[in-house]
Amino acid sequence: MIAPQTAPAGPAGLHNPLDALLGYQLRRASTVMMAHLGAALAETGLTPTEASILLLIDANPACTQSDLGRALAIKRANMVPLMSGLLKRGAVERAPVDGRSQALSITANGQALVADVRNRIHRHEQCFQGQFDAKALDAMIAGLQLIRATVQDEA
Amino acid sequence: MIAPQTAPAGPAGLHNPLDALLGYQLRRASTVMMAHLGAALAETGLTPTEASILLLIDANPACTQSDLGRALAIKRANMVPLMSGLLKRGAVERAPVDGRSQALSITANGQALVADVRNRIHRHEQCFQGQFDAKALDAMIAGLQLIRATVQDEA
DNA sequence: TATTGTTATACTCTATAACTATA
DNA sequence: TATAGTTATAGAGTATAACAATA
Fold first, then answer.
1. Which sign does the torsion angle of CA B138, B139, B144, B147 carry?
2. Residue to test with chain A: of B2, B16, B22, B37, most A Cβ within 10 A
3. In this predicted structure, what is the pLDDT of residue B2?
4. Over 70: is that where the pLDDT of A4 sits?
5. Cβ within 7 Å of strand D: which of B 93-152?
6. Residue B151, pLDDT above cutoff 70
């Protein structure tokens, strides 16, 4: 049972019983890191999602749009505008595999962008990973994966 | 430096270099827990955000709408439809403090809803907290708060 | 029959700007 | 001048349904 709380709130803010909840802390921490990542990527003109797609294509040459959607839990329909932005930008190219699939790859021009994205993400991650020692960081990552695995993964 | 990856993806899916990133794992884990919480609350007709507001008012009688917004990082403008739903439902009532502030409280009728919400959130949290021993859970919560505190808190 | 890529569309969340009335 | 509450609105992000072409 979660005990009802009647203690008065301090001058700094309200008493927040949600602070003890894993889901609440997860959501707030995620929002903080996403905002920080968005700022770190702003100069590239990419959103965190677009940057993720870029890194995933780079690590999986010849993958398809549907593959990416499955890996990142993005619906096929929502992949379309995401991909068309990266294609128009000339960072990604497509080659037909069969009549319906297209193999994705980073263009020669896109390589520099990928490297820049990698550096920016790395610096961003260091801001937060630096708060933990190696053991604690591994425990955090493992814990988060455990949470993800608790329920069958999203679409 | 994040090493470039060239290993082939297994048949189960793509190779995902984002798996080593705290921000990525945070986002995915948060999405999983939010979806699970949404399902746990569905029968109450409340969203996770509305349920959070309810618990926060219950823990902070006579708080204002703006107080809640600050505690939950919800902009004043976005609090309006949230509050009006809870008011129309008869779970929350308002009493004027001065000419501009209104003190919020849970109605007599709303108490049962708060209790139900508390139980549902508790069962939901147990699904995930149950994966950790007490020490690991404390470390997770503390780690998430540390991440939040790394950057000055959101609006 | 299932899958790829696509269009169109709707719904939720979040963000900004502006207004009023109060302090 | 700053704050509480409100309105209107714009922009993301995400969801479903449907379609054509292909496997």
1. positive
2. B22
3. 32
4. no
5. 100-102
6. yes
For residues A3 and A16, which has the higher predicted lDDT (pLDDT)? A16
Chain A residues within an 8 Å CB radius of B56: 14, 16-18
**What is the dotted CATH code of the domain comprising B46-142?**
1.10.10.10
Q: Tell me how close the Cα of B92 comes to any Cα of chain A, in angstroms.
A: 17
pLDDT band at B13 (very low <50, low <70, confident <90, very high): confident
**pLDDT recorded at residue B12:** 54
How far is C-alpha B42 from the chain's CA centre?
15
For chain A, the C-alpha Rg in angstroms (whole number) is 20
Q: What is the 3-state secondary structure (H, E, C) of A24-42?
A: HHHHHHHHHHHHHHHHHHH
Least confident interval from A73-82, A90-99, A128-137, B10-19 = B10-19
Which residue ranges have CB below 7 A from strand C? Answer: A 64-67, 76-77, 79-80, 83-84, 100-102; B 47, 49, 74-78, 98-100, 155
Pairwise CB contact (< 8 Å): A143 & B136: yes
Cβ–Cβ of B16/A71 closer than 8 Å?
yes
Residue in A122, A129, A126, A117 with CA at minimum distance from that of residue A55 = A117
**Residue A12 pLDDT:** 55
**Which chain D positions have some atom within 7 A of a protein CB?**
3-9, 12-18, 21-23
CA-based nearest residue to A12, from B70, B150, B53: B70
Q: Is B75 on the interface with A (CB under 8 A)?
A: no
Residue A142: pLDDT above 90? yes
Q: Say if CB B123 and CB B129 are below 8 A apart.
A: no
The span from the CA of B57 to the CA of B73, in Å, is 15
Task: Report the pLDDT value the prediction gives residue B11, as an integer from 0 to 100.
Answer: 46
What are the extents of the domains in chain A? 46-142
Residues composing chain B: 155
